[in-house]
Queue: 4 jobs
Job 1
Amino acid sequence: SAEALAFACRRLLADPVFVLAAARLGEPGALLEAGLPTLTLTGLDLAGTGQLAREHGTHVPAAALTQVHRATGGNPLAVIALIAEPDRLREVTPGVPVPVPARIAAWFARRAAGLDPDTHRVLLVAAAGDGDLAVMARACAALGLDVGGLAAAERAGLVTIRSGRVEFAHPLARASVYAAADPGDRR
């Protein structure tokens, strides 16, 4: 379907026709590879996150709203899922990823499915930390892990390594890696 749509869109560039299609950024597909004009959507800002919470009839205290926004990157679906369960937010220790709904966690888990177990453990160290690559390398060494395993996670589109920092592709990717880990591994 995506290939047929991309084929038709390439032929319509000279005609006064508007086509709107959605595709996930970072996942290969005919629409993204067709060379068509694109508009990349970003998450809601903090004010938009608050407005979305109010529209869903939920009052979220300012500190919790900031935490929801940071944890979700402004992803509306994730915001709605987290504000629907405000008690889960109270259980979260500052600095630890916010629990994410199973459906969202499963999407990121599929992206990490091809990684070996040691790379998953290195990703868990990254998810539990603050992104400082030097600190993470020391933690990995203490656990007998090779921080170089992050290269596979970077190829999978889960993290980016730059300027001595490990950055997850999305805050929900970090939270999903953390949530999917065995509690013993998290400890």
Note: DSSP finds twelve helices and two strands in the chain.
Job 2
Amino acid sequence: ANLAVFRSDLEDFQVLEFTGIQFQTFNVAKAEATGFELETEAALTDTLLGNLSVTYSDAKYPDDCDTQDMTDPAFNANAANLCGADLTNAPEWVVTGGATYENQFFNMDFFANANFRYESERRTSTQPTEIGSSVLLPGDIQDANTKLNLRIGLATLDERWAVELWGRNVTDEQTKNVTFNIPLRGGNANRARGQFTQDPATYGVTLRTKF
């Protein structure tokens, strides 16, 4: 088992924002993250390995994240609007775990693995609200979700060749990666929004060989 406790204070944190037309970058004076990580791994039997990890992270822009005055020529409304908000795609809780079975059958190595990833809800856009207002942007929260991956394989004892069958996100959880404004469509409290989604259920076969 490994345990780590962390506190990170970041200065001039660079943010990449998608405007619906292009990507643009700007710096925020302060960002911070506090939390812990616990990783565990165990040989449950001679042929079965298990692992479980838990991460808690309070990652946010502090209320005073941008100290520039509005009258300052260097004032950036995009940066100031982030103060007090959570970082994008930074869930408070992430839990991962899995198990791997390994054995020999008919003079071949066999393995089977199952692993999962749980995350609590997270914010998916760069800006939490309309610039300079308290109007929340719609569709900005990805709900808590769990994804499951499976893999089985056979290999010769000399590792000359191997075949694996695998599936990722086998329950086909539909989750958002990034949400953003659609330009010229709607206004405050009626903003048109778009989103990029993460990978759906994916299946495949992998063949490996050594020369």
Note: The mean pLDDT is 92.
Job 3
Amino acid sequence: MSDKRHDVHQLAITALAPLHIGTGQDLEPTSYVIDGEDLYLFSPEAALRALSERAREELIAILGAAPTVQLIKQVQAFFHRNSEALIAESEHAMPVLPSIAAEYSQRVGKTAQREESGREIINQLTIARTYGDAASGRPILPGSSLKGAIRTALLDLVNDGEAPQRGERNRDLQRRLFRYRQFDLDPMRLVQIGDARDLSPDETYATEVRYAVNRKRQQVIGKDGHEIESQAEKQNLRQVLECVPPLRPQAFMGQLGIQDVAGVSSQKLPDPSLRWSFADIATACNQFYQPILQREVLEL
């Protein structure tokens, strides 16, 4: 649909791979329990409803001690012991990989390692949250993230394979390619994208928990003929992330609007050659992201 000043398009978005948009917030093992291959999330209020009077007294006694590693271990173990009651009051659930469930069972309430000084390192068991609606528990694709992805594709289109100038910073590169020094002249000012919300049926899982691992794209062989592993591979380093499930057809709905400034005379408008139509944007995104998708499918 369109009006005199905006060309507005409905977006129906399908995630082609597990998708995580970081928020800086983590799930702690004092706000969730894992049973089988499902994680159950509960609020402090739900926990108080779920726990018996005796269990609440036990928790208060634990929390009354000095804040030490031992206290954290006791709190983790307490919630794990009372998982059956907490699951009954859980507000959201999400599937986890069998290996993540096994790791939780083995580590919750226990010491991860002990340093030479004798200081204990606690198992964190934190899970990085993805962006979402706190009330419904459904994920959201922020308009700012979508716009950033489109911006990258359009910058690549304008750049046309040229190498950055020597010592050029990212911000300066963008200003050169998009021909602006101030916000009014940034061509992306004419493109507005709202948050895309998950409209999947309520009975489907909103999110799921997966590992993010660091792996070399290509095998590297050392002088001795053996493969060289990265430090991340040697130490089996990985993150545990809450993700949007892949391949749910058109699960997210949003809007993209393009401001029409044709016929408007002003020195505070982007360069006329950098005013893209919806078709231009779609073409640029396909041209930039489709080869990346094809390469990653082959690598996996």
Note: The CA atoms of residues 153 and 288 lie 6 Å apart.
Job 4
Amino acid sequence: TKEVSGLILLDDNFATIVTAIEYGRKIYENILNFVRFQFTTTTALLLTNFVALLLGLPEPFKAIQMLFINIIMDGPPALAIGLEPANSKVMEKPPRGKDTKYITKNFMGVVGLNGLAMTALMIIFYIALERYGVSDEKYLSMSFVTMVCFQLFNALNCRSFERSFYEGIGKNKLLLVSLGISFVALLATINIPELESFMQTTTLSIYETLVCIAYASSILLIEQARKKLGIFIEKR
């Protein structure tokens, strides 16, 4: 019987079955959130670089900065997103069929919306820096800091497809710690001379740093609006 069966119940207690289903759904959602974060990050980074060069704007990122964003800045938060605790509504969703596609239109819609939003905002930011006559060194550093902050704020967005970024935020302490560590590492790249030389950045004032952070936080509002309006959310 064991050899031909597709599933073996070692414990037929109903409560155990419910717990197992909830655990499985949590893992499934976390994988989707992890992939969404990585897809959005890559989309925004590549499109921003491409559009900026297409418009004749100065080079927005150096190669080392792009590697830093993809490996150091995105790695720890992405792993923490994969460990997000299950939310209270995970069992309210209808069962998924075995033939349900992993990457759906709604999934790609969210990735595209946020990726394009960050790209558009970054291009607007570049044009503003150009107009205000910001030096090339400051331009490069501020664009780098802003893009990293976009990714860190977006990590909060990617905790869930439907819930607000602040709901249950204290439950995933690993994510908060990883975001804190990533932010400290970011500040180090624009304040420690040895790292500045390696990362090809320059020191930013407190005001300039706060401008980058505040501007990047706009992605929270964009994603919050999407969730409230029910855009790219599966109908139940």
Note: The mean pLDDT is 90.
